[in-house]
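note to self: dont lose this again. the chain is below, predicted strucutre after it. 306 aa total, dont forget to put it in the shared folder this time
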Amino acid sequence: MAGRRYRYCNFREYEGEAFAIYLEKMAAKGWYIDRSMLNNIWSFKKGEPSKRHYNVVLMPGSSRFDIEENEGSGQFREFCEQAGWKLEHGGILWQIFYTEEEGLLPVESDPETKLELIRDIMMAPWRLVLDFLIVCCLLAPLVSVLWKTGIGSLSILQAAGCGLLAVWAIYRAYSRFSMIKWYKKACRSVERGEGIPSGDVKLVMFRSGLELVFSIIIILTAFQIYSLFITLIWIEMVRSVCNEVFRYRRDNEENSGVEKSWARITLVIIVLTMVFFSVFYYITRVTPEWLELGKQNRINIEETMD
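---
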């Protein structure tokens, strides 16, 4: 469509300034954010080019697993608008404000407060747990196949599927460690009074491009390798259930007495059920599919040789 463009841009929680620079470049060409889809896919609508200054901030009290805005969203946006910033897009996580005035103070002027907000969202314990579980899920097929058949007996399809999952696991773990490394660097920078280090737009776009290409490759491959398709569905199920568990826990943190006890009991039941069915599903469904993939490939090779 001539009047609309879609961009996959995965800006991390500490890359708000880089996000603002990117939006300023898009506005200079006449493209403005219209809506977001699936967290990292942004829709831009064509308009008249303008010189705008953007301020992209995180919504206090929000997180990436939220499915609706928190109660303070309206009040926070009203506060920013009173300070002179106009709202261009208000999502669950990112709040995008702009102004055409010069010298307007940013919404987040205190580095310590800003860093604390980034830490609460980016370094939340639930995200560390979820990343660990997903990495384990991604590596599980490779470990089971190597344990049962050995690296020398891997079929081409097994090697391709497990290789993609291993690359995904390594990248996910690397991303988490890079976030931790940035946070430690930012803490030292704030202590020295130098402010919070900003991200690089070119690096974000390069990383987003790699993520998009890899996602397309693994989806197309999953349609050719059924065991990979099953594994992806299994991982998505684990991620969705974990999100619901963490959301339930957060929503019941302020309860007290009997209500808090029942919330904890319910949470324990949900977690145990999830762990049991995840392990059971993996043993009875995922592992046999990967092992059968190698057997079927060897049968086809033997038939071809005969």
